[in-house]
Design brief:
There is one protein chain. The chain has about 425 residues and is α+β, with helices and mostly antiparallel strands. About 35% of the residues lie in helices and about 20% in strands. The strands form 5 sheets. Strands 3-2-1-4-6-5 form a 6-stranded mixed β-sheet, sandwiched between helices. Strands 7-8-11-10-9 form a 5-stranded antiparallel β-sheet, covered by helices on one side. Strand 5 and strand 6 form a beta hairpin. The longest helix has 22 residues, at about 210-235. It is elongated and about 90 Å long.
């Protein structure tokens, strides 16, 4: 029997940072029965509502008509609408995503943009209990851990799901009783989409197990309790610039280590598609020598370095060779200083300093190359690669280093060291400061 649906955000937000606040609610409205029911419920609850509609460009004229329906419906009720059209098919083809993945990415990019611009305070999504069951089952089939069994949460940051405790039957009954207009998305019956296939299978299962949705909800709650305990027991991740480190000593207990790996990936923006096989590859890396690395999904790199696993994104950038001189180069500033007392100018120990008059004409800034060498302080020269090894510069960072070079003679390695050829002396009158 269908449950009666009511939304009371005062109760919904109890015990959260949103409690007692009058919020501007953005509602993701596709025109389908679930989102139209959510819009109707929030309006009847007296909430300050703005509809958000995205035309995904997947179903041609049909998709455009759905968006037109939403805008006209909202116009009749004086509900403001935020609208955006996106090209899911092109985005999917260009980036190697499925249509489902591409649509989700573009959808949430727009949602995040709306929240960042403070057009609404929270965004309400029409996910319900059957969606939760589908999500958890999909994750189980992909080999999820305990965290994945939690599924979706009623409140996740600035996203809320007021219908998550209700079933599809509850919503259908509400739509029918309140004569709510909606449109049918014909792609919802296309079982080539994974979620649609699972939805179809769950219908059959529910005929034999009527309490299936409640069972998945109970599984989600139990998983969340276990998840919270594991969270309290695991180590920390350490963020340094564009990298995240995990101590090898925190990887001894596998269930806790897996959570750290996922957390490290998430800190770099990789929030999906980390599977059991990826986690096992990371564990294999722990047993290998320093300097070894693996590349996982979404350009995620993991290096073994001394006592850490270092997570980063493979974003090695191109750099066009330019003449050496003042300016900003990949985050490093080169400043020319004239001085009568060079000792006063070299007090900043985080910077590097070069005698400007010792720099040969034709010196360029570029990436390092095979054959590069550097003259050491104390005499002699050394291959640049060997020199960087002596300074314990990780191999993973070397290919992206900038250098100032006179032919193969390296005068400066940005952020690392200078050559003895360009050292500061008492007679120095012009100094390049690199910081």
């Amino acid at each position: 029997m269908a449950k009666s649906i009511q939304i009371n955000l005062n109760n919904f937000f109890k015990g959260t940072p949103f409690e007692g606040k009058k919020l501007r609610i953005g509602v993701a409205v596709s025109g389908g029965r679930d989102s139209m029911a959510l819009l109707d419920l929030l309006l009847k609850a007296g909430e300050d509502v703005t509809a958000i509609n995205i035309e995904h460009g997947i179903r041609g004229e049909s998709s455009i008509l759905d968006s037109t329906f939403v805008r006209q419906y909202c116009e009749k009720l004086s509900v403001p609408v935020l609208f955006k059209a996106v090209d899911v098919l092109s985005f999917a083809a260009e980036n190697g995503y499925t249509k489902e993945q591409a649509a989700r990415i573009l959808r949430y990019e727009y949602f995040d943009e709306i929240l960042k611009e403070n057009k609404v305070d929270v965004i309400a999504l029409a996910h319900h209990g059957d969606d939760q069951a589908e999500t958890i089952l999909m994750r189980v089939l992909r080999g999820t851990g305990v965290h994945g069994l939690i599924g979706m949460k009623e409140i996740s940051g600035r996203y809320i799901r007021p219908l998550l405790s209700y079933s599809r039957e509850d919503i259908d009954a509400y739509v029918k009783a309140n004569r709510i207009e909606f449109v049918e998305d014909e792609s919802n019956i296309d079982v080539t989409f994974t979620r649609n296939y699972l939805r179809d299978e769950l219908k059959t299962l529910k005929e034999r197990y009527p309490s299936l949705v409640d069972s998945f909800a109970r599984l989600s709650r139990n998983a969340e309790e276990v998840d919270e305990y594991l969270e309290s027991q695991m180590g920390e991740i350490y963020q340094e610039g564009t990298e995240t480190k995990v101590k090898l000593s925190d990887c001894e207990v596998k269930p806790l280590a897996k959570r750290l790996f996922i957390k490290a990936a998430a800190s770099l923006g990789v929030l999906q598609d980390i599977e059991e096989r990826h986690l096992n590859l990371i564990f294999d890396l722990i047993g290998k020598e320093n300097g070894k690395y693996i590349e996982l999904t979404h350009n995620l790199l993991v290096h073994k370095e001394e006592n850490y696993l270092v997570f980063s994104l493979n974003e090695t950038s191109e750099f066009k060779e330019v003449p050496f001189g003042e300016g900003l180069y990949k985050g490093y500033f080169v400043d020319l200083i004239e001085t009568d007392d060079p000792r006063k100018e070299i007090e900043d120990r985080s910077a590097l300093y070069m005698d400007a008059d010792k720099i040969p004409e034709g010196t360029v800034i570029r990436k390092r190359k095979n054959g590069d060498y550097i003259h050491k302080f104390g005499g002699g020269s050394k291959k640049l690669g060997d020199y960087l090894t002596d300074l314990k510069v990780p191999k993973r960072k070397r290919d992206d280093l900038l250098v100032a070079a006179d032919g193969s003679n390296i005068l400066l390695v940005f952020g690392v060291d200078i050559s003895a050829d360009v050292c500061i002396e008492k007679s120095t009158k012009k100094i390049y400061k690199i910081f």
